[in-house]
Amino acid sequence: MARASIVGWAHTPFGKLEDPDVESLMARVSGEALSHAGLGAEQVDGIYVGVMNNGFSKQGFEAAQVALGLPELAHVPAMRLENACATGSAALYAALDFVESGRGRVALVVGAEKMTATPLAQTSDILLSASYRKEEADIDGGFAGVFGRIANTYFQKYGDRSEELARIAAKNHRNGVENPYAQMRRDFGFEFCNLVSDKNPYVAAPLRRTDCSLISDGAAAIVVADEEVAEGLARSIGFRARAQANDILPLSRRDPTAFAGARLAWDKAKAAAGITLDDLDLVETHDCFTVAEMIEYEAMGLAEPGQGYRVVREGITQKDGRLPVNASGGLKSKGHPIGATGVSMHVMACLQLMNEAGGMQIPDARLAGVFNMGGAAVANFVSILERRR
């Protein structure tokens, strides 16, 4: 099977942006990504768009909107994918499959979301579409409430780890100061993140505001090419391995604190790559809520179930630790425009591998892991990335 590489990318800042809609956001990154790759629109064989939408906009059919910003793409086959918060990775993996199957040589991947124009109550309801509404629609706090329930269950089993969650939040906010694309470039410090206050209230107890990722606008794009095309370009980031594993949607039918699908995806990717965690130089992981990041430490194999707090206390995932996690600031600081997130996480890893991450840079980064999930660890994607050129 042919190997596909990431050969170019583009990224808007994340936050409350003036761009009025997804169409304008995608237009900002589509041409820029192709220019970064050194390719023309006429060389694109397929377009893969990741936008969740599900009510953020009455305008759907986002796959057809890429050509509105880049008319040269009007006749290129395009499709939109949706996989909750893993929408961006779903679009990227579909593009990789397209190229590696030989159906095309170059694919453009665009992930985007416009969230901040929607009233907060409506946004909370839209995000609940990533849960099992038949059983979970009435959880207080919307999707934050889903993870508040997961945190409560975890604390009941393993003890109150609110302090460790605050340390994760503080770590990611500190890292995000160095990310020029981040929505929240502010180091809040541990004490602020750990204290419940008027400025840091409970959103869905035991989760405080600083335990929750941000509502964001933004877009990111990636260009994927086959080996022959990539050989003539300036950069090539390859996949040592990639894996996807799902889990059952309702929380009632599984252990919500196990993230079994995430563990399976990590196990499959590590086995396919022939590596252990010790071989990785960094990980970008899906910290939609701080409790998710802590459980993900366990799912990736950094700790046994219930022992993720030790990873925090020992500083293993700090920027200067044994395995830096979310040197970009993660979703917590960078922001979480749903459709863009998975694409953005891969771009952050690519910057590290190209030694172009600026103040975020992990020295001598050669092998990076990316974990992006949809829902409460329902759709789970793990990529092991390495620089080929």
Automatic annotation (TrEMBL):
InterPro entries, per the entry: Thiolase, Thiolase-like, Thiolase_C_2, Thiolase_N
Limits of the Thiolase C-terminal domain: 252-387
Domain Thiolase N-terminal, first and last residues per copy: 6-183
Signal peptide: none
Entries under Pfam families matching the protein: Thiolase_C_1 (PF22691), Thiolase_N (PF00108)
GO molecular function, one term: acetyl-CoA C-acyltransferase activity
NCBIfam families cross-referenced by the UniProt entry: PRK07516.1
Protein's name according to its UniProt entry: Thiolase domain-containing protein
